[in-house]
Amino acid sequence: MLPLRELTYQAPEPAPATYPHHLPALSGFQHLPFTQPVTFFIGDNGSGKSTLLESLAVKAGFHAQGGSHHANYPVANTDTHLADALRLIWNRKVSNGFFFRAESFFAYASYVDELAQDSAKALQPFGGVSLHHRSHGESFLALFQNRLDADRPALYLFDEPEAALSITGQLALLRIMHRWAKSGHVQVIVATHSPILLAFPKAAIWTFDTTPLSPTTYRESAPYQVTRAFLEDPERIFHELFSEDDE
Question: What's the gap between Cα 236 and its chain centre?
């Protein structure tokens, strides 16, 4: 059984014309059901996919900058107005989980190192090595492979996990996600631009490029469509991109 069944949004009244409530993806949006072990949020920069994911994480009790429910380190300025307008409907609420935020991962890694100064055991869930002593991509995979598991019911929220991963690293993450999904009790919600991650079998995909946000399919998604068009005919894409500069 998946932990989280549905997310609902109640826009403030009167509806504010300020961020984040003015985002087109939220106009007319009321609820988002979670029907698959893996759900993706996609959309162009500024569409609101990361904003909704981060607000979901805050509402679920995770550290706003990334980490588990128990993470305790300084928080940068974080807007929680959207979280206040969300309601989470659970099949069963879980305390095990993690919010991964590529943008603030450095701060989380530093927090783990501070814990390790008092006890070396703090590094055990990450393979026994400081996350700062690995490459950026290796530190991401060390977290996914060692810290997060499929043994217990869990909710994992990832904001752009592909940010530091090579193509082979993204394939490694897909394999890890398959293990989680196969468990039947781990749920993963991912905001991403990666056409590779989006290919995860039977995943639910929600695009934030519509008003309001709406479900889509892998082959209809913008990351797939644009990447395919580029790979099939890069010269045509370059011609379209550079034509004004060549005039």
Answer: 32
Give the chain's domain count: 1
Q: CA-to-CA distance for 94 and 153, rounded, in angstroms?
A: 7
CA 57 to chain centroid, in Å, comes to: 10
The pair phi, psi for residue 40, each rounded to 5°, is -115, 140
Its domain, for residue 172, covers 4-216
Instruction: Give the residue from 50, 5, 40 showing the smallest Cα distance to 223.
Output: 40
DSSP string, 169-233: HHHHHHHHHHHHHHHSSEEEEEE---TTGGGSTT-EEEESSSSS-EEE-TTTSHHHHHHHHHHH-
Q: Which tokens sit at 181?
A: 């999904």
The β-bridge relationship of strands 186-191 and 38-42 is parallel
Look up residue 97 and give its two tokens: 């989980």
Alpha-carbon gap, residue 151 to 130, rounded angstroms = 24
The pLDDT averaged over each successive group of 10 residues in the chain (247 residues) is 96 82 94 98 97 95 86 68 94 93 81 79 79 86 90 96 95 97 97 98 98 98 97 95 75
pLDDT for 75: 66
Q: Is residue 114 part of a domain?
A: yes
CA dist 204 and 189 (Å) reads: 9
Phi, then psi, of 103 in degrees rounded to 5: -60, -35
- Dist CA 229 CA 246 (whole Å): 22
pTM of the model: 0.92
Q: What is the rounded CA–CA span in Å between residue 36 and residue 38?
A: 5
Per-residue pLDDT at 78: 65
CATH number at residue 38: 3.40.50
